Each structure stands twice: as structure tokens, then as C-alpha cells.
From TrEMBL:
<protein>
    <recommendedName>
        <fullName>6-phosphofructo-2-kinase/fructose-2,6-bisphosphatase 2</fullName>
        <ecNumber>2.7.1.105</ecNumber>
        <ecNumber>3.1.3.46</ecNumber>
    </recommendedName>
</protein>
<dbReference type="InterPro" id="IPR013078">
    <property type="entry name" value="His_Pase_superF_clade-1"/>
</dbReference>
<feature type="domain" description="6-phosphofructo-2-kinase">
    <location>
        <begin position="52"/>
        <end position="267"/>
    </location>
</feature>
<dbReference type="Pfam" id="PF01591">
    <property type="entry name" value="6PF2K"/>
</dbReference>
<keyword id="KW-0007">Acetylation</keyword>
<keyword id="KW-0378">Hydrolase</keyword>
<keyword id="KW-0547">Nucleotide-binding</keyword>
<comment type="similarity">
    <text>In the C-terminal section; belongs to the phosphoglycerate mutase family.</text>
</comment>
<dbReference type="Pfam" id="PF00300">
    <property type="entry name" value="His_Phos_1"/>
</dbReference>
<dbReference type="InterPro" id="IPR001345">
    <property type="entry name" value="PG/BPGM_mutase_AS"/>
</dbReference>
<dbReference type="GO" id="GO:0005829">
    <property type="term" value="C:cytosol"/>
</dbReference>
<keyword id="KW-0418">Kinase</keyword>
<keyword id="KW-0067">ATP-binding</keyword>
<feature type="binding site">
    <location>
        <position position="325"/>
    </location>
    <ligand>
        <name>substrate</name>
    </ligand>
</feature>
<keyword id="KW-0511">Multifunctional enzyme</keyword>
<dbReference type="GO" id="GO:0005524">
    <property type="term" value="F:ATP binding"/>
</dbReference>
<dbReference type="InterPro" id="IPR003094">
    <property type="entry name" value="6Pfruct_kin"/>
</dbReference>
């Protein structure tokens, strides 16, 4: 099994961003409701030649602006922040700009289309947010998410002109929902705690917010794939993922957005991550292999069953790798389980079933290379953590779309899953359960100056990286999550 590592959420970053955005759970589903409305609704005429996107003039790697749109309480901010976690982009939420400009929110009257003073404030907030988007993307950012209602063609044309002037790409994500139960649940779960309603009564919040939605419905102009918006790239997400409409996907990043949005759901569910019980190779200090559980490992599996029974986890799916130590841990549960090959431990190649001392003595150069860049280092004939992250993406997608799941996995696999789910922008609540079963410590302390003494080795170049790193990335890629794995064999993590 792999030794200790510090893994940050940036290992999931597919594109370089200047900043990471962090959100608390209270912010996670607060839908923005600010968009310029217009009483002069245009007739649905087709876009003229001057309005068509000049896709051919864009560079392949031009920065992309993701534009959320839809009526309030449709889960736009929820989706935008899930996307942010997935690829570590930055979100510009127009509601934040509006609340900064108008400190005291009074009522739904602020969102009436005939409130000219409020209309002026909201448009100015949008322009300020767009300038921030421009600054961010021009300074090296690759993806920006513009989170607002954007329900009128006037507002969307303003955005389209903005991206054309700055040679950005644009992709719209429209959330459509006509299920009153879903809308009411979203208002009660999210809007009651919104900064717009401090210390407000639940019934008053519901009444005011429903009136706010009515203000937007007066001028709401959905995307029209047949005529007016046929040349735009977008996805419509209908009734929280029951149906989708995808139009003119232009590039890889847009296809990734579609892929991700078609795999998530907004219903709450629990994910339990559990490392397998102690194995015979753990006791011997050997990494990898396919050994069976030790006696203490079998004891851990029995205690895990008691934990599952005690918590009455209904409709729980159990996933394991195809290695014996996870299968034997799950078999004690007495429930059906699924085996996933992609959940197997990181492949140590020629170093499989060796101890760290053996690796240092027989392959000193490899040992030193791994210490210098653990995330990108690939075992000869094996994998790197970067390889493992890419291998695990289908599991991430399935965990996003499933109900309650218990994943019995391995040390390196668990680190990568935790790096994804523990990102603060995810807004996940994490609980750790100690099952109090003795186990060996498989953690090897990360070599740092002044902490771990080791025979000096020459500085060696990083090897086997898929993509080159900037100096900034080299400094930051391994900052973030650091766990004490002395207790890891005894722990379950709950999200």
C-alpha cells in the first residue's frame, strides 16, 4: 500500500486557475436571483449575422465563460458550485454583488420590472461582475462561471457581446423546473438561510420568494433552440435532471460540462468511505499485492458490520475493489456488494509487495524521485497518483448520481476521493467514525527538511508527468489535505 501523502483538491484541476473558490454549506445552494429584466420583451426573431458566434476565430484554448440562467430556486448556484468543485474554476455570483450594493434587502419589490431604480442598480452590478470576469480571465484564468438568473434576451445579448469583444468562449446552462414540490423544497432548504432573509419567519420567506419568482416570470425568455438561440452552445437541465437538451457543443470543456451535469443529482445522499481491514502485507510492511486480511483485519470487518447495523443505513449500496482485502471486509457485512476494478489500489509496478526499505536499497534513484514529486511520480511498470485520479473519475461520477453508498477501498484511492470530497467549495459535511480496532501504522512521514533524516540524494528531475507544471503549480500541488494515517485502518468517513 502507498505511504503517506499530502493531497490537495488541486489534483482534480483539469485547467489552470489563478484562484480556488471556497464556499460554506450555507452558501452552497443559495440561488442567485439577479438579472436585468425588461418589460419590452422582444419578438423571437432569429439572430442576425452580426450576432452569430465567430467560433472559427477563437483559439482552441480560449478562456470560457459558463453562464447560468433560469428562474430563481431552480438550483443554478448548486450546479455552478458543483462544477466549480469538479474542475476548480471560479464563480462570480451576481447576488453577492447585488447584496454589496444594496445592504438592506426589503422585499420582492426590488425585482419588479417596473422598479427603474432597482433595475439600474442590478444592471450596474452585472457590469461590475463582468469586468471582474474579464480581469480574471485576462490574468490567466481559464474558466469563469457567471451565476445569475439571466432570464432576458437583453441580458444574454449583453453577455454575448461581452465575450465576443474579449475573444472568450461562452456556454449557457439553463435550469428549468415546473415541479412545485421541488421548487418549494428548494426555497425552504436554501432560501430561508439566505443573506436576503436574516432572522425571517419561514412562511414570510416562502411568500416573499414566490412573489420574487413571479416578478421574473413576467419577462422570462427561455433559450430557443429552434430560432433565436440556435447558434448558441448550451444545455437545458429540466426538472433536476429528468431530461436534458444539448445544443451545439463546441469543444472538450463543454462536453465535460454536459457529461458532469448529466451525472449529478440534487437530492441529498450519504457517502461512506472505509479503508479495508488490516491485511497480512500491512503487518509485514509490504506495499500493494493481494494479500488476505490479518486476524485484526477480520475483527475490523466484524465491527464495521455492527456499525452499519447500528446506524440502520437503509438502501445502502456497498462497493469494493477486486482485491481480496476489500472483498473480505465487505463479506462480513452480509449484504450484496459490487466489485470495481478501478477501485483497486495504486499499482506499484516492479515495487509491488516490497517494503520501503527494500525499495530504498535496491532502487535508490526511484525512491528519491518519488519523494521529490509524489503526485506525478509513476512506479516503473505501475501508476502515479495522477494516473489514479484519472482512473477514479468514473467512480466520482457514479458517487455523484447514486444514493447512499459505502465504498470499501484502499489508502491511495481513499486519499484521492477525500481530496475531491473534502474541498471546502463542495460544502460537504464530513464525519469520521473511530471503530477502535488496533492496526499497524502504514503511514510513512513525508520527507521534509528538519523533520525526517535520510541519506542525502541528488536532486532529480520530475518524471512521467502528463503535463508540465508552472513553478506556481509545483509549489502548490501538494498543499492541502494531510491526514494522520496511524488510525486510518480504523476509520470510516461520512459525507
Amino acid at each position: 500500500m502507498a505511504d503517506g501523502v499530502t493531497v490537495s483538491s488541486s489534483v482534480w484541476r483539469h485547467y489552470e486557475c489563478m484562484k480556488a473558490v471556497r464556499f460554506s454549506m450555507s452558501e452552497y445552494q443559495q440561488d442567485d436571483t439577479d438579472s436585468t429584466s425588461s418589460s419590452d420583451a422582444r419578438k423571437p426573431e432569429a439572430r442576425g449575422q452580426e450576432k452569430k458566434c465567430s467560433w472559427a476565430s477563437y483559439m482552441t484554448n480560449s478562456p470560457t465563460m459558463i453562464v447560468m440562467m433560469g428562474l430563481p430556486a431552480r438550483g443554478k448556484t448548486y450546479m455552478s458550485k458543483k462544477l466549480t468543485r469538479y474542475l476548480n474554476w471560479i464563480v462570480f455570483n451576481l447576488g453577492v454583488y447585488r447584496r454589496d450594493a444594496v445592504k438592506a434587502y426589503k422585499s420582492y419589490d426590488f425585482f419588479r420590472h417596473d422598479n427603474k431604480e432597482a433595475m439600474k442598480i442590478r444592471k450596474q452590478c452585472a457590469l461590475v461582475a463582468l469586468e471582474d470576469v474579464k480581469m480574471y480571465l485576462n490574468e490567466g484564468g481559464q474558466i469563469a462561471v457567471f451565476d445569475a438568473t439571466n432570464t432576458t434576451r437583453e441580458r444574454r445579448d449583453l453577455i454575448i457581446n461581452f465575450v465576443h469583444e474579449n475573444s472568450f468562449k461562452v456556454f449557457f446552462v439553463e435550469s428549468v423546473c415546473d415541479d412545485p414540490e421541488v421548487i418549494a423544497a428548494n426555497i425552504l432548504e436554501v432560501k430561508v438561510s439566505s443573506p436576503d432573509y436574516p432572522e425571517a419567519h419561514r412562511e414570510r420567506v416562502m411568500d416573499d420568494f414566490l412573489k420574487r419568482i413571479e416578478c421574473y416570470q413576467v419577462t422570462y425568455q427561455p433559450l430557443d433552440p429552434e430560432e433565436y438561440d440556435k447558434d448558441l452552445s448550451f444545455i437545458k437541465v429540466m426538472n433536476v435532471g429528468r431530461r436534458f437538451l444539448v445544443n451545439r457543443v463546441q469543444d472538450y470543456i463543454q462536453s465535460k460540462i454536459v457529461y458532469y451535469l448529466m451525472n449529478i443529482h440534487v437530492h441529498s445522499h450519504s457517502i461512506y468511505l472505509c479503508r479495508h481491514g488490516e491485511s497480512e502485507h500491512n503487518v509485514q510492511g509490504r506495499i500493494g499485492g493481494d494479500s488476505e486480511l490479518s486476524p485484526r483485519g477480520r475483527q475490523f470487518a466484524r465491527v464495521l458490520r455492527e456499525f452499519v447495523e447500528e446506524h440502520k443505513l437503509s438502501d445502502l449500496k456497498v462497493w469494493t475493489s477486486q482485491l481480496r482485502r476489500t472483498i473480505q471486509t465487505a463479506e462480513e457485512l452480509g449484504v450484496p456488494y459490487e466489485q470495481w476494478k478501478i477501485l483497486n489500489e495504486i499499482d506499484a509496478g516492479v515495487c509491488e509487495e516490497m517494503t520501503y526499505e527494500m525499495i530504498q536499497n535496491t532502487l535508490p534513484e526511484e525512491f528519491a524521485l518519488r519523494d521529490q514529486d509524489k503526485y506525478h511520480y509513476r512506479y516503473p511498470g505501475g501508476e502515479s497518483y495522477q494516473d489514479l485520479v484519472q482512473r477514479l473519475e468514473p467512480v466520482i461520477m457514479e458517487l455523484e448520481r447514486q444514493g447512499n453508498v459505502l465504498v470499501v477501498c484502499h489508502q491511495a484511492v481513499m486519499r484521492c476521493l477525500l481530496a475531491y470530497f473534502l474541498d471546502k467549495s463542495a460544502g460537504c459535511k464530513v464525519e469520521m467514525f473511530h471503530l477502535n480496532v488496533e492496526a499497524v501504522n502504514t503511514h510513512r512521514e513525508r520527507p521534509m527538511q528538519g523533520k525526517v533524516k535520510r541519506e542525502s540524494a541528488p536532486q532529480l528531475l520530475r518524471r512521467n508527468s502528463y503535463t508540465p507544471l508552472s513553478s506556481h503549480d509545483q509549489d502548490s500541488v501538494c498543499e492541502g489535505i494531510n491526514f494522520d494515517y496511524s488510525d486510518e485502518l480504523n476509520n470510516c468517513f461520512h459525507f
